[in-house]
Automatic annotation (TrEMBL):
SMART domains the UniProt entry points to: RHOD (SM00450)
UniProt xrefs under InterPro entries: GlpE_sulfurtransferase, Rhodanese-like_dom, Rhodanese-like_dom_sf
Protein name: Rhodanese-like domain-containing protein
Domain Rhodanese residues, every copy: 21-102
One Pfam family here: Rhodanese
């Protein structure tokens, strides 16, 4: 149970986010459009967590790495769970977008 929670919230073995992006990972910002407009990671894709289930078609390749991010890490954890339950195989919770940006 603890390991499942750690995995869901992005804790555990460290992830080299810069390497993932260098190799073609998608950075998926799941904040609202207005939050995204206030600042975001260059090149990221914005699909709010509330509309993610209805917009999975925009994320065609289920085997391409996806790094989720939001303001604090809570919505990105939810988005990671949604993606994983829909067959996406390489999903990482990047947490807060500003913090993630500094890791890229």
């Amino acid at each position: 149970m603890i390991n499942t929670l750690k995995k869901l919230f992005g804790f555990g073995p460290s992830v080299n986010y810069a390497e993932l992006v260098k190799n073609g990972a998608i950075v998926l910002d799941v904040r609202s459009k207005s939050e995204y407009a206030g600042g975001h990671i260059k090149g990221s894709v914005n699909i709010s967590v509330d509309t993610l289930r209805n917009n999975l078609v925009k994320l065609k390749d289920k085997h391409k790495p996806i790094i989720t991010c939001c303001a604090s890490g809570m919505r990105s954890a939810s988005a990671k769970s949604i993606l994983a339950s829909n067959g996406y195989t390489q999903v990482y919770n990047g947490g807060g977008w500003y913090s993630l940006q500094n890791k890229l």
